Structures are given as C-alpha cells and as structure tokens.
Amino acid sequence: xxxxxxxxxxxxxxxxxxxxxxxxxxxxxxxxxxxxxxxxxxxxxxxxxxxxxxxxxxxxxxxxxxxxxxxxxxxxxxxxxxxxxxxxxxxxxxxxxxxxxxxxxxxxxxxxxxxxxxxxxxxxxxxxxxxxxxxxxxxxxxxxxxxxxxxxxxxxxxxxxxxxxxxxxxxxxxxxxxxxxxxxxxxxx
Length: 189
What we know:
Blueprint: H1 2-33, H2 35-68, H3 74-77, E1 81-87, H4 91-101, E2 108-114, E3 119-124, E4 133-143, E5 146-155, H5 166-188
C-alpha cells in the first residue's frame, strides 16, 4: 500500500540516523552526567534527531521522486532501480546506443565496455544527491532484429537510504532515449 511504503522510508531514516546519533550522544552524555542519566539523555537525543531527519529528508526524497514518477510504490521510493526494455533493433546498434545514452547523465564515465558479453558499467561523480552512482547495462540478443536491455542504477555507496530520485531519473532517461532510438529506426526503416 502507498502509505506503508512511504512509512517504510521514514522508518529506515529514523532508525538509520537516530540509532547511531543516540549511541554517540549516550556515550558523550555518560561521560558528562554519569551512566544511567547519560544513556537516557542520549536516547532522547537520538529519538529527536532521528525524528527530525526522517521528516525533513524523507519528505524531500519522496517529493523529488514524485516529480519524476507518477507511480508511488516501494520500488519508486527505493534507491536501486531497474528497467527492462525490448527494442526492435539489432544487437550491435543497441549496444552502441547504450554507450551513447550515458552522455545524457551528468558527470558520467564508462568504466567497462564488453560487446561480446553485452556488459556496460558506468559511474557518475559525486553530487549533492549521492556519493556517485553505478549504472550498468545487460544487453541480450533475442533474434536478429530484437534486443533486450536491462538498465540498472544504484548509489555507489550501498548504505545510501535516500537519493532524491537521482537513480530513478537515470533509468527513466536512459530507457526513454533507447525507446526513442528504436522507434525512430523502426519508423524510418
């Protein structure tokens, strides 16, 4: 359900920021105010900080995601995105279009390109949204005129909880570009 998924991201943020902060503050306060009261103070500090962070960051993330996608689900709210695209084009052409599509993403460089296995891996630079992303392509031949592409985009840091829709935007842009190339070629051919 729509509400449950949004709750999920807020809960992850609350726990992911509140617990480390609470532990840190608990240790800090224990040195200052002694053991039991320091831990209690740390617990409250963690809850307050976690609540604040999950509300602010969670709201910004879900708002950013809604600007990109009309779908509002667990998958859209996540930071790892996949798109499965079937194109009416031969394998070699599709592979080259995949390499070309990387130019659409700012500060993105191809790290690995292997046409024989249909693998492309690209990395983006650090932005205010993420510590860089990893975009990968898995290109598979269906027959002489049809090719399947699986595009994946995720933050380079596996622990990233929010990306303000950056990886969703990456896969949406790339898959739209590939579909456009396929339609243009199909209509002109």
